[in-house]
Amino acid sequence: MFIIIYMETEFKEILYAFLKEEALTQTSFAKFIGVRPSQVCEWLKGKAKPSYDILKKISMEFNIPADYFLGITDQY
Q1: How far apart are CA 33 and CA 39, in angstroms?
Q2: Which of 32, 55, 59, 72 could form a disulfide with 67 if both were Cys (CB 3.0 to 4.6 A apart)?
Q3: What is the pLDDT along the chain (76 residues), one digit of tens a residue?
Q4: C-alpha R_g of the chain
Q5: Side-chain half-sphere of 65: how many Cα atoms within 13 Å?
Q6: Cα–Cα distance between 46 and 12 in angstroms, integer?
């Protein structure tokens, strides 16, 4: 039996912490994943969230499980 404990952290907080930890600007992060910097800004403000395809691309580009960005795990 699997027990999954979901963290209460929102995507915007997870993304902000990730960018800070990796010393990435919104612009450089946006270039890595192929979106506009304004899109990343909307995510950081909590006004929008990335689509499944973009989340998959983030995960693959940085070799980090999507579970981290979904708040399922706090380690990457």
Answers
A1: 11
A2: 72
A3: 444 444 567 999 999 999 999 999 999 999 999 999 999 999 999 999 999 999 999 999 999 999 999 988 877 7
A4: 12
A5: 8
A6: 6
* Amino acid at site 16: Y
Tokens of 65: 């499980």
What predicted TM-score, i.e. pTM, was given to this entire model?
0.83
Q: Which two tokens stand for residue 31?
A: 């270039």
CA distance 4 to 48: 25
Q: Are 59 and 67 in contact (CB under 8 A)?
A: no
